[in-house]
Write a structure and sequence with these properties.
Helix content is 45%, strand content 13%. It is built from 24 helices and 27 strands. Strands 5-4-1-8-9-10-11-12-13 form a nine-stranded mixed sheet, sandwiched between helices. A four-stranded mixed sheet has the order 3-2-6-7. The chain has a three-stranded antiparallel sheet with strand order 14-15-16.
């Protein structure tokens, strides 16, 4: 059994008694409430607790199951499930009377969680307290430890009896959260504001990186070695009662730590007061939602997103990606292939598709106000209008050497689609020089690649456009759909009637690939065809990991087509003949998810599968995960599927394995054990997929990404 987060402590039924109302039972207990708060935010914690196989125990199991919390096997061995009478006064404040057994199940020695949280009654009362303390102290330095005393004097006994054990937990913890009331009870002399602050700093000296003192409606203060941060309470939603307020706050702190990678060995959040403030403020917002309704009822991920609390983290990641991407500008012109450190790898040539993608990335950065991106757009457009352009035969070279000579003079639909995308994005970002580039790119697509007979684009010409390769591929057509939709939006913003032509062509391609080929193939998309668009399902069976023409069904393309199908449908408007598109998008997603995620027993999407769904290439590619995030967000926007749990899981997985926190960017490829690999791809060629993944959840399905950002500025 594995778990990123292990929560240790009691679970019980809160029997809430309100003035003038009949008693009502709710699953509760501080550790359970923390676990529920994290589960609803998509963290999937494992709870080690103690309850009985009775009606109350069934309530706890159902509560955990519906909120994304796993229970450690062996936790259901109590004679009866513990209870707590919670008597609420007129202001909604609770006092408790407990009937509890503080035992705990056996804690596995080989679990290896990233974070362990412990707190409240079972942490200090035996026999569970001794078990929990030994486990926490044994994992100090191996896991991130959080602790909340959450004192309950009516069952814990005298403060003198528990103070020593509490301080041992504090010394073992990386982060401690404690209420002012708990501190005042543990240290009767520390009743003034100064006295409480002094005690918090004393705890900080025991070893934690952060000690957060909550003061109810007065807000919270975080004490760190780098300074002190004060955060007000979030009262925007009103107050019904305070049941579970502190536990939701604790869940919010853990959620912030997990999302900001501070649970990694050696991480010290206390050195960055802005990060401390952001995490504590988010915890206050989570607690504020909880107190606005009855009982310990913490918010779900969608509620937190609606309050705008995840966008700041993604925005920071977006700008970090842009910083990394800007290092790919080559002084010789255009953009280069970046290695693992972000340095241009000059053993690789200058690829047209990379130059186009990075110009598109820079256009996004321009509209986000990122320094240096406007100049990078001009840099990319200049290369496309000069270096890469074939002045004799038209079109653009596929690859240039570092002396400026064409090392691959072929004219490929795949890369030419990206010329359209780059020019569209640059034009939308305000680059005047991009407009003639866009018009020329559309002419080349119209006259050289578009095949009206089949409603698709051909694959590749030689330099002089005299010999057309008989191979036809879906990959080039997929990116042509993306490019045509973007061009249509940009032309429409300029008031040009030609916009509809390119939108209709995007729909024609999508209809053939998805409504015909994918539907007929159990929603696994055939990638390779001959000149008459007859599928070749066995192409490259002998070299299945080909960079651009792999054998079998490509999981990432099923996910990418999910998003593109929904975007094309939204761009076309409500048309009865396109009613198949949402259903097809959902089917593509379900097939890719079922075939690809953890298909070989480890987290991550395999790269390709055979036509029966058996994994072929097991490597995990960064762009596949990025497209999964985009597809999940698009489905949620279309109202077709709740994807909160998947999105949260995938961002956590990205943070753990793909995001390179030391060198920047995302790792290109991982092996089947999620170790860095370079079987198919090496280095970090471009930032296009992952940058879009940070934005798609916050933009409409139509218009395309850069026109949508431009429209926001309008």
């Amino acid at each position: 059994m594995t778990a990123d987060i292990l929560i240790i402590g009691e679970t019980l039924i809160d029997i809430v008694r309100r003035p003038g109302a009949a008693p009502t039972g709710f699953p509760g207990g501080s550790p359970l409430n923390v676990a529920i708060g994290l589960g609803r935010l998509g963290q999937h914690p494992l709870l080690a607790c103690w309850y009985g196989r009775d009606d109350h125990g069934a309530m706890i199991e159902a509560h955990c199951a519906t909120s994304g919390v796993d229970i450690l096997p062996g936790s259901d061995q109590a004679i009866r499930t513990p209870t707590a009478d919670a008597l609420l006064d007129a202001a909604g404040h609770a006092t408790y009377t407990f009937d509890i057994d503080s035992r705990l199940p056996e804690l596995p020695a080989d679990l290896a969680p990233r974070l362990i949280h412990v707190g409240s009654i079972s942490a200090v009362t035996d026999p569970g307290g001794a078990t929990a303390l030994a486990y926490v102290e044994a994992h100090r330095g191996r896991a991130y430890i959080t602790y909340d005393p959450n004192c309950r004097p009516s069952i814990m006994g005298e403060a003198d009896a528990v103070r020593g054990r509490v301080e041992r937990y504090v010394a073992a913890a990386n982060l401690v959260k404690v209420s002012d009331e708990d501190l005042a009870w543990l240290y009767p002399g520390a009743t003034t504001a100064d006295g409480l602050a002094d005690q918090a700093r004393r705890w900080l000296a025991f070893g934690p990186d952060v000690v957060v003192v909550t003061r109810g409606a007065a807000g919270a203060t975080a004490y760190t070695a780098g300074g002190t941060v004060d955060v007000p309470a979030d009262t925007a939603h009103g107050l019904v009662d305070t049941v579970g307020a502190g536990d939701s706050f604790m869940a919010g702190l853990i959620f912030g730590l997990m999302n900001r990678r501070y649970t990694r060995p050696g991480s010290r959040i206390g050195t960055d007061l802005d990060e401390v403030r952001a995490i504590v403020a988010q915890a206050a917002a989570i607690s504020g939602i909880t107190v606005s309704r009855a009982g310990a009822n913490p918010p779900w991920a969608d509620e937190l997103r609606a309050a705008g609390w995840w966008e700041p983290w993604l925005a920071r990641h977006t700008h970090a990606l842009l910083d990394f991407a800007l290092k790919s500008q080559a002084p010789e012109g255009g953009f280069g292939w970046q290695d693992d450190d972000g340095v241009i790898d000059r053993s690789q040539g200058r690829h047209l598709w990379i130059n186009c993608r990075m110009t598109h990335v820079a256009a996004i950065g321009t509209l986000l106000g990122h320094p240096g991106c406007r100049e990078a757009v001009d840099h990319g457009v200049a290369a496309l209008s000069g270096l890469f352009q074939d002045q004799e035969y038209g079109g653009w070279y596929a690859e240039l050497g570092w002396e400026g000579q064409p090392t691959d003079p072929a004219k490929a639909a795949y890369a030419h689609a990206f010329v359209i995308l780059a020019a569209s994005s640059a034009a939308a970002a305000g680059c005047a020089a991009a407009w003639p580039l866009l018009r020329e790119a559309l002419v080349i697509s119209e006259t050289r690649f578009w095949d009206e007979t089949y409603g698709m684009v051909a694959e590749e010409w030689d330099r002089s456009f005299t010999r057309l390769d008989p191979y036809r591929g879906v990959n080039a057509n997929m990116h042509t759909v993306e490019a045509y939709l973007a061009a249509a939006d940009v032309l429409e913003r300029a008031g040009e009637a030609a916009a509809e032509l390119w939108r209709e062509r995007a729909l024609r391609i999508t209809s053939r690939v998805i409504n015909q080929e994918a539907r007929a193939n159990n929603w696994r998309i055939p990638e390779h065809f001959d000149a008459t668009w007859t599928p070749h399902l066995d192409l490259n069976r002998d070299r299945p990991a080909d960079q651009f023409r792999p054998y079998g069904a490509t999981i990432g393309h099923g996910l990418e087509w999910t998003r593109l199908t929904l975007q094309a449908h939204a761009a076309a408007g409500a048309r009865p003949e396109l009613a198949w598109m949402p259903e097809a998008a959902l089917a593509l997603f379900e097939r890719a998810l079922g075939d690809g995620w953890a298909a070989d027993g480890a987290d991550g999407f395999v790269y390709t599968v055979d036509w029966d769904g058996t994994p072929v290439v097991h490597e995990r590619m960064y762009w596949v995960l990025a497209e999964a995030i985009g597809a999940g967000a698009a489905l949620a926007k279309a109202g077709l599927r709740t994807t909160t749990a998947e999105l949260d899981r995938w961002w956590r997985y990205a943070d753990t394995y793909f995001i390179d926190h030391e060198r920047g960017g995302w790792r290109e490829e991982l092996d089947r054990q999620n170790h860095p690999s370079a079987t198919v791809w090496s280095g970090k060629p471009d930032t296009y997929h992952v940058l879009q993944a940070t934005l798609i959840p916050y933009l409409p399905l139509t218009p395309a990404i850069v026109p949508a950002l431009a429209a926001r500025q309008d």
